[in-house]
Structures are given as structure tokens and as C-alpha cells.
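Researcher: Next entry in the queue.
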Amino acid sequence: MSDISEALRNAKSDYEKKLMQYNIACAFALRKKIVDKVDSNFGGRVVGDRKITAGFRGGSSGALRNSIRVVPTADRLRITAGNANVPYAAIHEYGGIIQAKKAKYLTIPIADKYRARRAREFNLIFVDKKNTFPFLYDPVEKRVAYLLRKSVKIPARPYIRPSIKEFIERDAEEIFNRILKK
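Model: Structure for this entry, 182 residues:
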């Protein structure tokens, strides 16, 4: 009887080890797939051995891609994206409307010069002509610097859901078979 019990304990232990190996392998593979999707959605490119992504204000910090976590547990993978420094993770995944909260308008920079700094850092003129959207004009450059909007609709650019679907369809079974053959 004790031989059977011992064999069952060993089998259960081996099964749990293989399951954890599988979950860890899946976590690494799925995170890579999600990060690659973020890069493709938001203009990422590889330069040397570094990933460079195009950001809204003159270059991305990589905060969204760095906030992605895929944590294996005994029976599932826990996926998170975003944190206090990356509150926009959900709006990119699902889309939605962003409204001005602390000011009357959102400022949308028109040229690269204006992307790296806030509108209030320039000496600009507020223009609100009839039948047009309001904007901020730069009299030195003689051009529109920022468009002003009370709200903007951000289209969904999902990066987690398609990655999970693709992972399940293409990768999960291959990883499972590789771990079982060890």
C-alpha cells in the first residue's frame, strides 16, 4: 500500500513540476508576443539590440511595454499592463474617449517641436474663430502649434487580447508537447 501511495505522490509531484514548467514557458512566450504587438501597434522598431518606440511627446519611454507582466501561478497566467505611471494601457487596449479635466481643452501638438514640451512653455496665441476648432498659434514660427479639443476618441489598438488568441492557436500546444517530452 505504501508503494502505491509513494508512486502516486511522486507522480503528482512530477505532474506539478511539469505544469509549473509549462506555465513559466507560456508566461515568457506570451509576454514576448504581447510586447511585439505593442511595438507593432505603436511604431516600435529595433535599432541594434534596443527596442525604440515612437511616443506622443517626442519619443517613448517604453513605459507601456515595460509595464506588461505575465505571472505564472499553479493553474493559470496572470496578465497585467499599466500601473500608476501608465494609466493609458486600458484606453489603448479597449479604446475610449479622453476628456479634458484640469483645463478647458486637451492640447494636441502639430509639429515635433511642440511634442516634447507643454503648450504653456511657449508664448502662444489662443485663436477661436467661428466655424473652426480653437487652436494655439505660434507667432514666432508663424504656424499652428496645438489643436485644442474638449475630448478625443482614441481607437482601440488591442495588444493583449489578440496576443492571447494567437498564443492559444499557435504556441500553447507546441510548448505543452515540448515540456512533456522532457
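Model: The CA atoms of residues 18 and 181 lie 10 Å apart.
Researcher: Noted, moving on.
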